[in-house]
Amino acid sequence: MGLFGPSKTQMPTRDQALAGRDEVMAVPDRHFVLGSPLVAPFPPGAELAWFGLGCFWGAEKRFWSQDGVISTAVGYGGGFTANATYQEVCSGRTGHNELVQVVFDPSRIEYQDLLRLFWESHDPTQGMRQGNDIGTQYRSGIYVGSAQQRELAEASRAAYQARLDAGRRGAITTEIVDAGPFYYAEAYHQQYLAKNPGGYCGLGGTGIAFG
Questions:
Q1: Cα three-residue angle 195-108-101, rounded to 5 degrees
Q2: Which residue among the candidates 17, 48, 55, 89 is catalytic per the annotation?
Q3: Average pLDDT of the chain, as a whole number
Q4: Distance of alpha carbon 50 from alpha carbon 117, whole angstroms
Q5: What is the pLDDT of residues 185-198, one digit of tens each?
Q6: CATH superfamily of 47-183
Q7: N or C: which end of the chain has fewer CB within 10 A?
Q8: Mapping DSSP to helix (H, G, I), strand (E, B) and coil, where does residue 104 land?
Q9: Secondary structure tally for the chain: helices H, strands E
Q10: What family classification does the UniProt entry report for this protein (predicted)?
Q11: For residue range 17-62, what is the model confidence (pLDDT) as tens digits?
């Protein structure tokens, strides 16, 4: 425990978490790259998925670049603080992870394809960090919106762990939990690397292909 609560690598309890607020974060209406809606309603038939794999700037770019992805947004989830700010998330006192929300057309790209990209875009064995980024907000996580997504996510975790075992790599620390509220991050974070091409990415990987 730190002087004022949990350390940045220890999940706070609900009682320890910051209270948050009712005001929803203001974000642009349209995706900076794709021109699609950033906020619902989304096109009929679209499905949603949520992933945490380190700094959300680089993670979001990996997903918006895929054919069949309609829209992406970055935000916070998996914790307790309603409508948290970036500064609050960085304090380690919200329990939130940095997430990418992916809106996709399942007739063009399947959830399994998104899972493959997730596993191959980061190192899921690092616990409460991703490379040099340290804290609960950088943990590996899949936040499922249905029983089918959970089944596919858990099967993919087992399959990727088998590949890591074969390569004598570590144990996966990725959490797979039901998706809770997704709180949009500040406008300047949305599609950050398209607006700042030389910006920090922070993603690595294990070098082991999945699937």
A1: 45
A2: 55
A3: 95
A4: 13
A5: 999 999 999 999 98
A6: Peptide methionine sulphoxide reductase MsrA (3.30.1060.10)
A7: N
A8: strand
A9: 5, 8
A10: Belongs to the MsrA Met sulfoxide reductase family.
A11: 999 999 999 999 999 999 999 999 999 999 999 999 999 999 999 9
Best CA proximity match to 185, nearest among 29, 75, 61, 20: 75
What is the dihedral sign for C-alpha 38, 157, 201, 184? positive
Active site residue 55: yes
Identity at 147, one-letter amino acid code: A
Q: Which two tokens stand for residue 136?
A: 């609960």
SS3 assignment, position 90: helix
CB 46 within 8 A of CB 70: yes
Please tell me the distance from the alpha carbon of residue 121 to that of residue 197, in angstroms, as a whole number: 18
Start-to-end CA span in the chain (Å):
40
Give yes or no for a contact between 75 and 16, defined as CB atoms under 8 angstroms apart. no
* Omega prior to 41 cis, within 30 of 0: yes
Using alpha carbons, select from 197, 204, 85 the residue that is nearest to residue 133. 204
Q: What DSSP string describes 117-132?
A: HHHHTS-TTSSSEETT
- CA–CA gap between residue 206 and residue 80 (Å, rounded): 30
Taking the complete model, does pTM exceed 0.90, yes or no? yes
Give Cα 185 to chain centroid, integer Å: 12
